[in-house]
Each structure stands twice: as C-alpha cells, then as structure tokens.
Fold each of these.
Amino acid sequence: MAKPIVAIIGRPNVGKSTLFNKLAGRRIAIVEDTPGVTRDRLYCEVEWLNHKFTLIDTGGIEMETEDVILKQMRRQAEIAIETADVILFMVDGKTGITADDYEVANMLRRTHKPIVLAVNKIDNIEMEANKYDFYNLGLGEPITISAALGLGLGDMLDEIVKHFKTVSDDEEESPEIKVAIIGRPNAGKSTLLNRIVGEERSIVSDIPGTTRDAIDSYVEIGEDKFLFIDTAGIRRKSKVKEEVEKYSVLRTIAAIERADVCLVMIDAQEGVTEQDERIAGYAHEAGKGVIIVVNKWDVIEKDDKTMNEFTKNIRNDLAFLDYAPIIFISAKTGQRVNKMIELIKYVANQHAIRIKTGVLNEVISEAVMMKQPPIEKGKPLKIYYVTQASTKPPTFVFFVNDPEVVHFSYERYLENQLRQHFGLQGTPIRFIYRSKQED
Ligand SMILES: Nc1nc2c(ncn2[C@@H]2O[C@H](COP(=O)(O)OP(=O)(O)OP(=O)(O)O)[C@@H](O)[C@H]2O)c(=O)[nH]1
Ligand SMILES: Nc1nc2c(ncn2[C@@H]2O[C@H](COP(=O)(O)OP(=O)(O)OP(=O)(O)O)[C@@H](O)[C@H]2O)c(=O)[nH]1
C-alpha cells in the first residue's frame, strides 16, 4: 500500500519548521548514510497510531515583498494539490487571517482533496477564541495547535489520518504495476514515456490555469497493466533556481512514494551526477524496486568494453544500489525498451515476493552453519527464527538473543545469502531484529 502524502502549506513564519521538527520520527529529509544526499527539510516520515505517512513541506523559500509571498503560496498550493492525499493548511493564530490566507483558501476549496486547517501559536486556553475568525476561510472546523509547545497535535493528527482510509482502499484494488520515471532534467524521461505510451497518453488537467506536470499514464502491454508516473518537465517559469529544483524534488518524492518500481534514468552522455545520486537515494530510502536505466545509448561511441566500463562506474557511484539491475537503452530509437518493460515486471515481482517461513529458516540456518556470527560485545549472536513480516520491500524479522550484538558485516552476509537463494533483484530488503525474550 502506498504511503499517503500530506503536504503542509502556509505563509512564511507560521511555524512549519517547528511543526516538522515536532512530528518528524524517522527520515527527516534523508538519513546521512546514503551518499550524495544532503540533509534538508523537505519531507519526513510521521507515524501516528497505526498510520504512517510522508509529510512534505512545500514552502520555505525566503521571499521579501508581500505579493511575492502570495505568488509563492499559490505555487505551494498547486504543488500540494497535485501531489498530496491530504493538505495541511497552517495559519497563524496570533496574527489572525491575512489576505493571502483568503486567496489560498479559495484555491484549496476548489479541489477535491481533503484539507485540514491548523491554527498555530495557540499556546494557552485564553487564545482558543482566536480560532473563530478562521471559520471565515470556509474550510470547515479550524484545529488549534501550538507547534512550539506540542499542544493539540494529537487532535490534528487524528483529523489527518481520518482521511487516509478511502485513499488506500482505492489503491489496493488496482492491479497495475506502478512505475515512476525519475531523473535529472533532460535525461529523456518524457521521450521514454512517449515511446512507451505513444499516442494514447492522456493529459489530465484538473486545476484551472495550471498544467499538471506529473501525469499518470495507464498502459496495457499484452496481459500486463502499468501505471507510469511521469515527473518530467518542471516548466513553471521561475527565476529562482532553488525554487524550481525544490519543486522538482518534491514531485519526484511524491512520485516515488506512489510507485512500486522506480526507473532511475541516467544520461549516458553525462554519467552519474550528484543529482542522480540524490534522486536514486530517495528511491532506495523509500524501499522501492529500482532499475538503473542508462539512456541515450545511441549517441555513445562503443566497443566491446564500453558497457562494462559504464557498469563499473555506476556500481561505484551508486554503491548503495548494488541490488538494482542496469539496462542500457535509447528512448529515441527504442533500443531495449521492450526488454526494459520485461525487467520492470520482473523487479515488481521480486519487490512483492513472499518467501515461506520454512524455506527461509532453512536458508538462514545453513548460512549460519557455514559462517558463524562474530562475537560482539563478548556475546555470540543467536538467531532462533526468521519470518517475512511484510512485502514491498521484503522485510524480515529475526528473533535473536540480543539485537544489540548483530554486526553490520554479518547482516550484509545474511543479505547476500538471501539474495543468492531467492534472487530479490532490484529490490531493497529490510531486516528487523527482535529479542526473543520480548515475546
Ligand atoms: N508562540 C508560538 N510561536 C511559535 C509556535 N510555532 C512556531 N513559533 C514561532 O514562529 C516563528 C516561525 O516558525 P518557523 O517554524 O520557522 O516557521 P516556518 O513556517 O517554518 O517559516 P518558513 O521557514 O519561513 O516557511 C519562530 O520564531 C517560532 O519559534 C507556537 O506554537 N507558538
Ligand atoms: N540521442 C538521444 N537523445 C535523446 C534520447 N532520449 C531523449 N533524448 C533527447 O534528450 C532531450 C531531453 O529529453 P526529454 O525526454 O525532454 O527529457 P526529460 O527527462 O523529460 O527532461 P525534463 O522534462 O526537463 O525533465 C531531448 O532533446 C530528447 O530528444 C535518446 O535515447 N537518445
């Protein structure tokens, strides 16, 4: 099930960062151990009761004059409308409603997306009454919070997660493989999509005055159904370079969250760049199936060694994606595009694989017999039992004597053993350790 996306929008200074920091559990922006990925506050994972969702921040660029703020907020709202399942509209309960708040509320009211209106900076009971003004926005009941003091956040989260159920029900019924084509501008994403979809591509634009840049395309190829999520072309005119980049990143993250398989598209003429590393890092972090697609292979002068050299360099630059297959294509000529489609099917299957507990334990016991765990902190690791807890990505729970004594290199060894036996190409896998005494 795709994790829902909640987008937070609001004027500068209403307290978005403060709320972010309060809610962020794991993955604020990106964990540091993925190389090439910088830490910036763009998104975080939030867990509330039994729900997990991704909170994205659509704002945060410094603006000076009043009308620029409004322009900026309109953009935020557009992005939120495009990418989010639920929109969290944050206003300042201390300053009261502003004209910009009205403008944005008008835009939001026209969408079918659920909106949660949070009135921030209500630090004490006496200030509660400030909320009545905000009914005028016509977005329903305002929820008062104090991000700084952590007040009212539970009620706000309850309201947010209330809107999830219908979203995930829809998604679960769809049988198609969801594929996100991600990569730097100019890598050839649109060209590839057009090659696959051809004339049938349907352009959906449900927001007046804006073009939807992320367009879903349903494609049936033989018996198989695919949904391609395109992230190409951030074509909004903006003079602020960081702004354009930030939007393109947010859209990429939203596309990745919805996908089963991500095609990380590399321009063969450019090789792997830092931006490629970062984009690939998002897909890896999100636990999605990944295929590295080297495009524009037609323009590369090649001999019998070229492909090996490229492979070596990519493995080196994107070491954390060692499980991802690499394919060399030309979106322009169509070279290996059919093969790539087959690969997508294969990786989607691997990503959704379920391994029976019996076989799983046989493989792990054999692995342990072949190579005993090293002694950590004076204590040998004992693995009692392994079971696959979930899929997409395959997640294995190890019941052990002490989770603290699992060594990174031994985990690597076990992962390799599982990969040797079960394939698992193109999918990250996750290990969770439980102390047996706990249960
Ligand atoms: N009194 C009070 N102040 C708050 C609260 N939440 C945030 N603030 C203050 O409001 C100011 C702005 O907070 P930020 O979290 O940086 O606001 P922001 O919306 O992220 O701002 P941008 O990054 O410009 O978009 C800071 O001085 C915070 O300390 C709150 O619940 N109560
Ligand atoms: N030679 C060659 N050129 C290609 C190939 N794929 C794309 N191109 C060219 O590369 C340029 C960029 O392609 P697009 O498909 O627009 O790239 P994009 O990734 O969608 O770019 P954005 O919309 O900016 O994100 C165009 O001029 C394409 O014709 C290819 O396989 N071979």
Note: The chain is about 35% helix and 20% strand.
Amino acid sequence: MTAFLQVDNLCKSFGAITVADDLCFAVEKGQALGVLGPNGAGKTSMFNLITGTLSANSGSVIFDGTNITKYSAAKRCRAGLSRSFQVPQPFSGMTVFENAMIAATQAGGMSGSEAEAHCINVLEQTELLDRANIQAGSLTLLGRKRLELTRALCTKPRLLMLDEIAGGLTEGECRSLVQSIKNIHASGVTIIWIEHVVHALLAVVDKLMVIDFGRKIAEGPPRQIMESPEVQEIYLGIDADE
Ligand SMILES: Nc1ncnc2c1ncn2[C@@H]1O[C@H](COP(=O)(O)OP(=O)(O)OP(=O)(O)O)[C@@H](O)[C@H]1O
C-alpha cells in the first residue's frame, strides 16, 4: 500500500546544480514531517516539484494513491496539495479577507457563501479575523506569515506544505504561530514543514528528514535525527570527529 504522499526517485538539475538527487520519501496521512537542510540544499525546489511549479527530470509523485507527476500546479492544488511561500506574497492592495477569498475561489474551487464561510473559519483559526478588513500590505511580518497560512488553508488542503514560515519572527511571535500550526495539525491536516528555526519544528513534527545537495541524508524520529553525527556535521557545521 502506498503512503499518503509518496515521492519516488525524484531527480532535477539546473545545469550543474542538482536540486533533487534520486529523492525518495513518504508521508503518512496525519503525519507532520519536518525538513531540515543547509541553504541551497534543494528544500524549496522539492516543494516546487511536489506542487508542480517545477517539473522533474525523472521520478514520480503519488498523492493519495494517484500519480500526479504530470498534473499542473492548479490540478495538484485541487487534489488537496497546498503550500505557503518562504517570502509572503499577498496581494498587498487588497484586504486580508479578499486575499483569503481569492485562494478559496481561484485555487480552492469554492464560490459564494461556501467560500465566505470557509474563509471566516480559516481566519478565525489563523487569528486574523479581527484584521479581515485591513489591507494585506499593512500587516506586520507575523500577520503576513499568518496570511500565508490562511491562503494555503483556504484551498482546503489535505497536505499542507510550509516553507520557512517561522523565519524572522521574535520568540513570542514564533510561539504563537507554532500553536496555530499545532492546532491545524490536530484538526487532521497532514503537514510537511521546511524550517531553519529548529525548536519551532521540533515542537510540531513527528518525523524529521534532512536533505543536502538534493539528496536525503537522514530520516527518522526528530530527537534521534538531531543527535546523529552526520546531521550535526552537515547541518550544524560540527565536525563528526571532534
Ligand atoms: N530556477 C532555478 N534555476 C537555477 N537554479 C536554481 C533555480 N531554483 C533554484 N536554484 C538553485 O538550486 C539550489 C537549491 O535552491 P533551493 O531554493 O531549493 O534551496 P533551499 O534548500 O530551499 O535553500 P534555502 O534554505 O536557502 O531556502 C540553489 O543553489 C538555487 O540557487
């Protein structure tokens, strides 16, 4: 039986730069997988390959039993895959609610009162309901991160992919965002979360994967992975022989 998300032998290069090197991993339904790796390891490219904004040289992506490798990004989103972007990309001149509605209608395929009710629910969940009518461009960084989360959730994802959503936040802001992500996970959404803020990731995920040069170098229980000498050397810069 295949996993909820099954990535098999994914390969992608940009000339001499390899961003996915025979990448294989699986995510089970309800799991929260954390992804670590140095800058330029290929983490965002991996999201692009899974969500379809980048096409693979070879390999396959199976989601909920369907081979979606040839699907467009829009079709993958309709199938239940959604992601946030490392750099928040709201429609700055529109309100928070309008941003949510665009995600729900254009990407999520909802309309009318169904879309409105869903957006209100999501904005409540992401703690932005009290700012629904302000311009997205006037939000703080935490607000823009919350709006990224909102826009991803408004498409009704079954697999939510978060790309460095905690980056640049203060400790307090990070804690509050982590609580929201925990609540989303507890509501049944499967998560893959790329993050450099390791303590935030460890507060949520039940499995960790480390990639470097597009290749999976470790995968397993978070504490065990963090303690492995290879990961400490490659990710944290600590020499395994020291
Ligand atoms: N479209 C592209 N064309 C050429 N090179 C690219 C392209 N997209 C990404 N790269 C390169 O591929 C490598 C991996 O980039 P990617 O953004 O996937 O890394 P990352 O692990 O997400 O890094 P970070 O942690 O800094 O966000 C980098 O060297 C990047 O410059």
Note: The pocket of adenosine-5'-triphosphate is lined by residues 14, 17, 19, 37, 39-45, 86 (CB under 6 Å).
